[in-house]
Structures are given as structure tokens and as C-alpha cells.
Amino acid sequence: MTEIDYYFDPVCPFAWAASRWLTDQAARNDVRVDWHVMSLAVLNEGRELSSDKQRRQIERSRHLGRVFMAAVAETGDGSIGPLYDAVGRRLHHDGAVMTHVVVAQALSNAGLPAELAAAMDDESFDGSLGEHHRRSQDALGETGGSPIIGIDGRHFFGPVLSAIPVGDEADALFSSLVTLARIPAFAQLRRPADGHPVFS
User: What is the DSSP track for 62-75?
Assistant: First the structure.
């Protein structure tokens, strides 16, 4: 069995694209995926943000991160994957604004108490969010953004996908990443991302 650890910030569109590909691959292969939350809000603490759009994104990251931490406190790490599915579809596919009502609906859809949406404004969850983020950085071994993937214990930043691969392309990407992860000498391969991910 291939064991995968996947660290994501729920607001990151690149992480969402990769997670949909990974979910499909896990369903069709001998793969176990453990989902973990990281935080772009924590990653960018103390940094000057260049635009209002970035500031809104970081604020959204903080609020949703708190909700994930509340879900973990309520029912454990097993809640992360279902909540990511429910939040991600609303945020990335539907373009929904992450209001308390929308987040409550996502929580209910994930089988979690809707009242956990109140955690969006609860700073008491910031400590656990910071700890979960530190785990992602420790796993990678350096500072890295969203997503981070670990394949049988070897961790990389990425994959950064500008669309959700399907069919033979999706299978080839998965087998290639597993192969690269099993080569101890391999460290990094990178090219510029081609714009915002497309989910259609």
C-alpha cells in the first residue's frame, strides 16, 4: 500500500485541484491518504501583503483553519477529509462566500455539528492551527506553501496543478510521483504555474 500524507490550506485552489486528483487515485489504487491542515495565514504572519485580495484570502484562511481545528477537537482527525470535501466544493467550484451560514451548511454536509461554524471568530483555536501548520513544515524540512505531499514518508512541496488531471494523464502523474518519491537522490523539479486552476 502507498501511504500518502497531504497537507493543505482549504483556501488554496492549487491544493484543491491536486486533492481532487489524489482522491480519485486513492479510490482506484491501493492508497491510503491521511489529510492534514496547514495554514497560509500562519505562513504569512509578519509579512506585508501586497493587495486587499491577498489580505482577504489570508483572513479566509485563518477563519476556515479555526473551523477545521474545532472539527478535529470535536471528532478527531477523521473529520478533516469530509470537511475539506464539503468546504472545497462550495468555495472552489461554487465560488461561495465563506459566511457562517455557508460554513455551517458544509459542516452539516460533512456530518459535523453546524454550530462549529462559530469557531471562525474564536481565537482560542489559533494555537492548535499554528501547531498543525508547524507539523507540515517539519514534515517538509523547510518552509513551504500549500500543498505539501508525503509519499511513503518522503515529503515534497506540491503538486501544483493548474487543472484536475483525468484518465491516463492522471494515472501517469500518480505513478510518476510515486516513482520519484522512491528515488532517494531526487529532491525537486519545478516550472512556473500556468495561472489559476480551472475546475470545469
Answer: HHHHHHHHHHHHHH
